[in-house]
């Protein structure tokens, strides 16, 4: 039987119903495997062997290995134990055998310990005398194996408790240290919200639904109550408040957000605006969860992909005593969490459990991070890893206001476009996006799109890449036509939302205007009431990236 478990693309619905039998990556929750080097959970042979060595000394069940030797034990130790059982003379371990065992230990620190270096709290009897070396009797030599096992197991358990010996998969290592993945990120995401149906059968849990303030309503899962069950108490968390302009009005934003919360059909107990990255509002959220959670109740984080569930867990760990060593992986790549990843609540001392430690009824309680459900309507689903860095907002937004004239186009790279086809001679638009806008005539905008489809590089970014990438980039199609009335000269009337990349607020006082909105394949666009109607700024001067398209 092969030890590695192949990761199936849509196997999450069954894999997260119960605690997986196979070992998991502690940062992304993917089952460890050794077959596919590009897939989540991959470990090379050395790391797989190291993980099994740690399991042996912790007393965990054996896992069939894939190393060349096929052994799950520390080399040499299994043979020494066999000799110990076979006869009384097996209790004697020669210096050569001992050195051979120590030389085969993968962990350099453990190897240094058992090769004779001093350890804090351990005194070698040989160091207590100045005369001839101590000569061990046969009975004393027989304890060498037991001492070796005891010290090794104690050290591994101590390092595990401190979070210092965590083995992570190759994908998590690349994301953590290089902020990249080695294959297209969309191959690993979960797009079916029915994977969360297992929560319907949980008798008593608390649900924390996390959404992205920068992508409303795209980051909300419609009719979520029908999927996870409407009886569970829910705390709704709107994350990434640090991306909004500094002068946003929190209470007005909270009232605006409650409108969209009604569509979830959930038993919402409280709503919080937080920034997990900046720790804003996290302590208030932790205090609320502690008050509302019943003894022994588990907590589940659910929501769309890339809304910040993992970062929110890390924020709770940061305000806990000693919790930082057990953080999960959070990155800008959607679908970073691949499986159900549980962290004992006793790791959240001071945040979710008392400073004195977890009570008896909470020692078996967990906080679970679930895989994010990706929306196929999100525009970022068409982007490569490199293009994601251009389109996804990761720092505080600075809105810019511009004039959009009649028969002109506002273009957000190749991802979005707004044409003013009828109405006043001009309207005001305030842009909330990291993509640099480009203004031009409608006819020239059509020409830019055609040139991009032919593989020619243009001012529009994203997409980025060679001619082949530009040819295969989804063509912009009409997503919606919208007629509306401008209600105030300096207050926004509507927001045009491009799911995943931002929105455009339209201001002005006029009786009627008609716009046409384009996006890749005509998806991921909607119109909503203005999120920040009073944040209209003075008209900004043209930037270099908004130069007119040459004739």
Give a description of the structure.
By secondary structure, the chain is an alpha/beta fold. The chain is built from 15 helices and 14 strands. The strands form two sheets. Strands 7, 8, 9, 10, 11, 12, 13 and 14 form an eight-stranded antiparallel beta sheet that branches. It has a six-stranded mixed beta sheet with strand order 3-2-1-4-6-5, with helices on both faces. Helix 2 (45-58) crosses helix 7 (144-161). The longest helix is centred in the N-terminal third of the chain and has 18 residues, at 144-161. The protein starts with 11 loop residues before the first helix and ends in a 23-residue tail after the last strand. The relative contact order is 0.09.
Q: Biggest sheet: strands, sense, closure? A: 8 strands, antiparallel
| Beta content | 15-25%
The number of helical runs is 15
Roughly how many Å apart are the termini? 67 Å
N-to-C order of helices and strands: HHHHHHHHEHEHEHEHEEHEEEEEHHEEE
Radius of gyration: 29 Å
What share of the residues lie within helices?
25-40%
Count every beta strand, where a strand is a DSSP E run of 2 or more residues.
Answer: 14
Question: Structural class, judged by helices and strands?
Answer: alpha/beta
Give start-end ranges of low-pLDDT stretches: 1-20, 65-91, 119-123, 125-133, 543-551
In round numbers, the mean pLDDT is 78
Shape: globular
């Amino acid at each position: 039987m092969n030890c590695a478990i192949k990761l199936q693309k849509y196997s999450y619905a069954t894999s997260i119903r119960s605690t997986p039998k196979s070992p998991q990556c502690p940062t992304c929750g993917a089952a460890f495997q050794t077959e596919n080097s590009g897939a989540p959970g991959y470990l090379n042979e050395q790391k797989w062997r190291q993980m099994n060595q740690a399991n042996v000394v912790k007393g965990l069940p054996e896992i069939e290995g894939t190393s060349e030797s096929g052994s799950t034990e520390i080399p040499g130790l299994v043979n020494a134990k066999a000799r110990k059982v076979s006869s009384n003379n097996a209790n004697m371990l020669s210096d050569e055998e001992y050195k051979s065992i120590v030389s085969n230990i993968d962990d350099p620190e453990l190897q240094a310990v058992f090769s004779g270096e001093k350890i804090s709290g351990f005194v070698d009897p040989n160091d207590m005398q100045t005369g001839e070396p101590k000569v061990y009797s046969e009975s004393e030599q027989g304890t060498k194996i037991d001492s070796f096992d005891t010290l090794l197991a104690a050290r591994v358990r101590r390092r595990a408790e401190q979070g210092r010996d965590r083995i992570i998969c190759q994908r998590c290592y690349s994301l953590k240290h290089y902020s990249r993945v080695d294959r297209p990120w969309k191959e690993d995401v979960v797009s079916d919200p029915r994977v969360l149906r297992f929560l319907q059968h949980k008798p008593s849990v608390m649900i924390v639904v996390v959404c992205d303030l920068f992508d409303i309503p795209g980051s909300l899962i419609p009719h979520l109550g029908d999927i996870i069950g409407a009886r569970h108490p829910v705390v709704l968390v709107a994350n990434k408040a640090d991306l909004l302009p500094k002068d946003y009005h929190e209470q007005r934003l909270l009232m605006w957000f409650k409108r969209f919360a009604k569509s979830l059909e959930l038993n919402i107990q409280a709503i919080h605006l937080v920034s997990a990255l900046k720790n804003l509002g996290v302590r208030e959220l932790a205090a609320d969860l502690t008050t509302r959670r019943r003894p022994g109740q588990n907590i589940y984080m659910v929501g769309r992909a890339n809304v910040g569930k993992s970062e929110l867990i890390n924020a709770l760990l940061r305000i806990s005593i000693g919790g930082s060593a057990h953080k999960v992986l959070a990155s800008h790549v959607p679908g970073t969490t691949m499986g159900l990843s549980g962290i004992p609540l006793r790791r959240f001392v001071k945040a979710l459990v008392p400073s004195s430690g977890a009570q008896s009824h909470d020692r078996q309680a967990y906080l679970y991070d679930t895989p994010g459900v990706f929306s196929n309507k999100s525009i970022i689903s068409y982007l490569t890893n490199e293009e994601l860095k251009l389109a996804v907002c990761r720092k505080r937004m600075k809105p810019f206001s511009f004039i959009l004239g009649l028969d002109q186009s506002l273009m957000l790279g190749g991802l979005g476009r707004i044409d003013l086809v009828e109405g006043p001679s001009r309207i005001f638009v305030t842009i909330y996006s990291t993509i640099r806008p480009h203004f031009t005539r409608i006819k020239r905008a059509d020409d830019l799109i055609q040139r991009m489809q032919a593989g020619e590089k243009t001012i529009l970014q994203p997409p980025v890449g060679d001619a082949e990438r530009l040819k295969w980039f989804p063509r912009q199609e009409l997503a919606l036509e919208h007629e509306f009335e401008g209600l105030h000269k300096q207050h926004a009337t509507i927001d045009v939302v491009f799911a995943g990349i931002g929105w455009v607020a339209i201001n002005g006082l006029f009786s009627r205007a008609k716009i046409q909105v384009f996006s890749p394949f005509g998806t991921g666009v909607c119109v909503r009431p203005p999120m920040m109607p009073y944040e209209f700024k003075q008209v900004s001067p043209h930037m270099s990236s908004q130069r007119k398209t040459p004739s």
